[in-house]
Write a structure and sequence with these properties.
mainly alpha, 5 helices
Length: 160
C-alpha cells in the first residue's frame, strides 16, 4: 500500500473521533430528534472507515479485531431480539413499547425496569436505537474492512 500524506495522518484521527462522537450523539438523541440508530451507526462507521483508509488495517488506532466485531454484532442482535421477546411475553406483541405502556398491559415492575428517564417518555425506543446503532456500525465497518483486506491481498498478489 502507498503511504499517505503526513497532514492526512495528523487530521484523520481527530476527525474520526469527532465523527464517532457525533454518531453517538445522534443515537442517544434519536428518540427526540431526526436520526437514530441507523444514522448514528452509519456515522460511527464513517469515522472508523476514515481511519481505516488513512492508516491501514494493521496501523488503525481503533481496535476492530474480528473478536470485537463478532461480539458487538452478536450483542446487538441478541439485545434486539430480547427487547422484542420481552414485549411479546408481557404484552402479546413483538417490540411492544414496555417502557411506556399505553394500554396497561405490562406489570408495573417490568415497566419501571425499561422506563427511559426522559421527559418524552420514550420507553424502549432509545434502547432500540442503541442496539440498531451497534449493528449498523459493526456491519458497515466489517464490509469496509473486508474490502480493504481484499484490496491489499490483491496488491500483494500483483507484486509477486
Amino acid at each position: 500500500m502507498s503511504e499517505g500524506s503526513t497532514v492526512l495522518k495528523l487530521l484523520a484521527f481527530p476527525i474520526s473521533i469527532l465523527t464517532i462522537c457525533l454518531g453517538v450523539n445522534t443515537i442517544l438523541g434519536g428518540h427526540i430528534t431526526p436520526g437514530g440508530g441507523f444514522q448514528g451507526g452509519a456515522m460511527i462507521a464513517g469515522g472508523v472507515i476514515l481511519s481505516l483508509f488513512v492508516y491501514g488495517y494493521d496501523k488503525i488506532p481503533l481496535d476492530f479485531s474480528h473478536d470485537f466485531v463478532s461480539a458487538v454484532e452478536s450483542f446487538g442482535a441478541l439485545a434486539y431480539i430480547g427487547l422484542g421477546l420481552i414485549g411479546l411475553i408481557f404484552a402479546g406483541s413483538f417490540l411492544y413499547n414496555i417502557g411506556f405502556d399505553a394500554y396497561n398491559l405490562v406489570p408495573n415492575f417490568i415497566q419501571t425496569i425499561f422506563h427511559y428517564p426522559d421527559v418524552t417518555n420514550a420507553g424502549i425506543i432509545p434502547y432500540l436505537n442503541i442496539v440498531v446503532g451497534l449493528k449498523v456500525m459493526v456491519g458497515l465497518s466489517a464490509i469496509a474492512i473486508a474490502f480493504y483486506q481484499f484490496k491489499s491481498f490483491e496488491e500483494e498478489g500483483d507484486e509477486e
